[in-house]
C-alpha cells in the first residue's frame, strides 16, 4: 500500500507519515520545506520533523509544492491513500497575502484532489474550525474568573458539524480552507471518492514549534522556557478545546481503515479538554517553575471568545474519543521542549 502525505515534513504531517510507515505503508512525504517563508518568521529547524522520520526504511521524500500540479501528479502515482496536511496555516498571513493563501489552500487542495481522483485514492483533509467563521461569536457566552464559556445549553457539547458556514465573515484563511473543505466533500458526492474531512481545533504536542500566529500551546510553552515575551490579544479568558497530536492521527487512521466512504468531522479535545490562555499560563508555571512574560493588547479581528468542538459524530461513526488529557499532553510537550532546548543550548 502506498500513502502520500502532503506537508509530511511538518508537525502534523510527519506524525501521520510515521504512523503509516510503522504499519507497513510505503510512504511518500511531499513537502517544500516552506514554513518559515510562508509565515515570515522562524519556526525552529524546518527540517527537524523530517529528520525524525527520514531513517524509516519505507519513507522517502519528494520535494515539491502543492501549487505545482505536475509535481503533485508525479508524486502520487499509484497512491492508495493521500493525507493532505500541506497548507498556509496562519490567519495573520492570509490578511497580508490573501493571494498566496488562496493558491496554497484552495488551488493546492484541488490539485491534490485531482491526483486522488485519477488514482482512486482514499483522501483525508486537515480542515479547520475556522470554516465556521465569525458565526461562532453569535453564540452567547458567560464570563467566569479565568475563562469564557458558552452560555447557550444547545452548545454544551460544543459546535456541531451542521452549525453553518455561510452568511458570515471568515478571513481569507477561513475562506480558502472552506473552499478546500467543500471541494473535498464534493469529490465524494460527484466522483465517489472516499474522503474524510477533519475540521481541526487546536492540535498540539511534542516536536511542535509554535509561533505567535500558529500553534499557541507550543508557542506559550517554548516562550515560557526561553523567557520570551508573550502577547495576549484580549483578556486571556478566550477558550479553545485542545487535542494531542497522537489522538488526531488515530482519528485519521480509524477513518481510513473503516468502510465509510465519506465523513465530515469536528476534531478537537471536546468539552473535556479545554483551556483558556490564562489557564495554560498557570499550568505552565506549575510544570516549569518559570513565570511567563505576559503583555496584553487589543482583540484581533475574528478572534473567538470560545470555540469547543462537538466530537460526538467522530465517536459515533469512528469509535473515537480523545485519550490524552490536557495535563498529560502539556506535560509531554514541556518535557520535549526542555530536552530540545537543552540539546541546542537555547
What are the defining features of this structure?
346 residues, alpha/beta, Rossmann fold, seven-stranded parallel β-sheet, 12 helices, globular
Description of the molecule:
The chain is globular. The protein has a single domain, classed as Rossmann fold (3-Layer(aba) Sandwich), CATH 3.40.50. It is of the alpha/beta class and 346 residues long. The chain contains 12 helices and 15 strands.
Secondary structure category: alpha/beta
CATH architecture: 3-Layer(aba) Sandwich
Largest sheet: 7 strands, parallel
Per CATH, the superfamily is: NAD(P)-binding Rossmann-like Domain
Using the coordinates above, name the CATH class: Alpha Beta
Helicity level: 40-55%
* Total of helices: 12
Cα end-to-end separation: 41 Å
* Count of domains: 1
Task: Supply Rg.
Answer: 19 Å
**Contiguous runs where pLDDT drops below 50 for at least 5 residues:** none
SSE string, helices as H and strands as E: EHEHHEHEHHEEEHEEHEEHEEHEEHH
Q: What overall form do the CA principal axes indicate?
A: globular
Sheet with the most strands: spatial strand order? 3-2-1-4-5-8-12
CATH names the topology as Rossmann fold
Number of beta-strand segments: 15
Mean pLDDT: 94
Estimated share of beta-strand residues: 15-25%
Family: Belongs to the NAD(P)-dependent epimerase/dehydratase family.
Organism: Sulfodiicoccus acidiphilus
Domain NAD-dependent epimerase/dehydratase: 4-268
Protein name: CDP-paratose 2-epimerase
Amino acid at each position: 500500500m502506498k500513502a502520500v502525505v502532503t506537508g509530511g515534513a511538518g508537525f502534523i504531517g510527519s506524525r501521520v507519515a510515521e504512523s503509516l510507515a510503522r504499519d507497513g505503508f510505503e510512504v511518500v512525504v511531499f513537502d517544500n520545506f516552506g514554513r518559515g517563508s510562508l509565515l515570515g518568521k522562524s519556526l525552529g529547524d524546518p527540517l527537524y520533523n523530517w529528520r525524525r522520520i527520514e531513517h524509516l526504511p519505507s519513507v522517502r521524500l519528494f520535494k515539491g509544492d502543492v501549487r505545482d500540479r505536475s509535481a503533485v501528479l508525479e508524486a502520487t502515482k499509484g497512491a492508495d491513500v493521500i493525507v493532505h496536511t500541506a497548507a498556509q496555516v496562519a490567519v495573520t498571513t492570509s490578511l497580508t497575502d490573501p493571494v498566496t493563501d488562496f493558491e496554497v489552500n484552495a488551488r493546492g487542495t484541488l490539485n491534490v484532489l485531482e491526483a486522488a481522483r485519477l488514482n482512486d485514492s482514499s483522501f483525508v483533509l486537515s480542515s479547520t474550525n475556522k470554516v465556521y467563521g465569525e458565526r461562532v461569536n453569535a453564540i452567547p457566552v458567560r464570563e467566569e474568573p479565568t475563562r469564557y464559556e458558552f452560555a447557550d445549553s444547545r452548545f454544551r457539547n460544543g459546535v456541531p458539524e451542521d452549525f453553518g458556514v455561510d452568511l458570515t465573515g471568515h478571513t481569507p484563511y477561513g475562506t480558502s480552507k472552506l473552499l478546500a473543505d467543500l471541494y473535498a466533500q464534493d469529490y465524494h458526492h460527484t466522483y465517489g471518492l472516499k474522503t474524510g474531512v477533519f475540521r481541526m481545533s487546536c492540535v498540539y504536542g511534542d516536536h511542535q514549534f509554535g509561533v505567535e500566529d500558529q500553534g499557541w500551546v507550543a508557542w506559550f510553552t517554548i516562550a515560557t522556557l526561553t523567557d520570551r515575551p508573550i502577547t495576549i490579544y484580549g483578556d486571556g479568558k478566550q477558550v479553545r478545546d485542545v487535542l494531542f497530536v497522537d489522538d488526531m492521527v488515530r482519528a485519521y487512521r480509524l477513518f481510513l481503515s473503516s468502510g465509510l466512504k465519506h465523513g465530515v468531522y469536528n476534531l478537537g479535545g471536546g468539552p473535556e479538554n479545554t483551556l483558556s490562555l490564562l489557564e495554560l499560563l498557570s499550568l505552565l508555571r506549575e510544570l516549569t517553575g518559570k513565570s511567563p512574560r505576559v503583555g496584553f493588547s487589543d482583540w484581533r479581528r475574528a478572534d473567538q471568545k470560545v470555540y469547543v468542538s462537538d466530537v460526538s459524530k467522530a465517536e459515533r461513526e469512528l469509535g473515537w474519543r480523545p485519550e490524552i488529557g490536557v495535563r498529560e499532553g502539556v506535560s509531554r510537550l514541556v518535557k520535549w521542549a526542555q530536552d530540545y532546548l537543552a540539546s541546542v543550548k537555547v
